[in-house]
Amino acid sequence: MNILNIPAPDFMAEEEITLFSDSVGKWIDEHAGPEKMAEWIAASSVPRDLWTRAGEAGLLNLSMPEEWGGMGGDYRHEVVLMEQLGWKGADHFGISLHNAIVAPYVAHYGSDEQKGRWLPKLASGELVGAIAMTEPGAGSDLQGVKTTAIRKGEHYVLNGSKTFITNGQLANFIIVVAKTDPAEGAKGISLVVVETDGLEGFERGRNLHKIGMEANDTSELFFNDVKVPVENIIGEAEGRGFYHLMEQLPQERLNIAVQGVAAAERGLRETLAYVKERKAFGKRVIDFQNTQFKLAEVKTKLTVARVFVNHCIGLHLKGQLDAATASMAKYWVTDIQGETIDEMLQLHGGYGYMTEYPIAQLYKDARVQRIYGGTNEIMKLLIARTL
To answer: Which residues are catalytic?
Structure first.
């Protein structure tokens, strides 16, 4: 059981999953503990060799088939990794984007040749994955992307720029959302893989400075007449990219909800430890009725969030998670994450505003959850269409 004392659902309570969770927690303690995370926050990036070590430990491509170098697990293993990263405060490491967002595009839509070429290298850490959707003038509206990939002979020529790209400084395997036919709107969007090592015309911009998630490198990317082989397009034909994105976005949004509830659970654990130790007016902060009421509210809201997220995970494992329900999970959980962490920071008093206390970092990190993966306003729009 976690800090909420909620029994794990049956599909997460199997012995193999429990043992795997323990091993992931130990790996994080050894390789991505609080002192190292503080160093990486100061450096605005995790070290490149952390990816190699994660590959050696079998933590990359957890849900990819063994025949393609993966661990042969399923989405439960990705959930375990996301939860442990959140509970341990190591969630700046962009491994879950690599595992549960980037690699599935290759697994679901790539040819056997593409799977054999890319998935083993993504599993070893030789390749670090990113997906480049957002542009300076196009965020949640993916149909508005301006980056083009125009076919010329046996190559596509990419031109355009992307921004806010997670893993952008370290990634050398980037799925680029581009227009292969600019006149066709959504039907002209394709997914093109750019392998960046030694690639002429590809440039990384600055590592963007953010108010939270500082150790997760986030970058601008520029494509200036970049030549990409035609065999690097994902999918059976041009123009399928938008549909592939729509099919995979529910899992991305569920990922955000899983990460959000795990981070908030860590906040509750840290806050309970603080209020039981800190004294004011001669008694512990936990002994004040206001503290008890506030934490009762927090626990109730997080319990509802956890149960709903577990329900969504169960649906997803059965292939039944629809876009609207995933949007509900993303928007509601991230709203609750921000709300409850704010309340818990308040219970720390002035110390909650100091960065050496975990609640301050949790507060900073929570804000972006309501923005990426589609803003929460977009989530409500998608939900409203089902009414």
So the answer is: 252
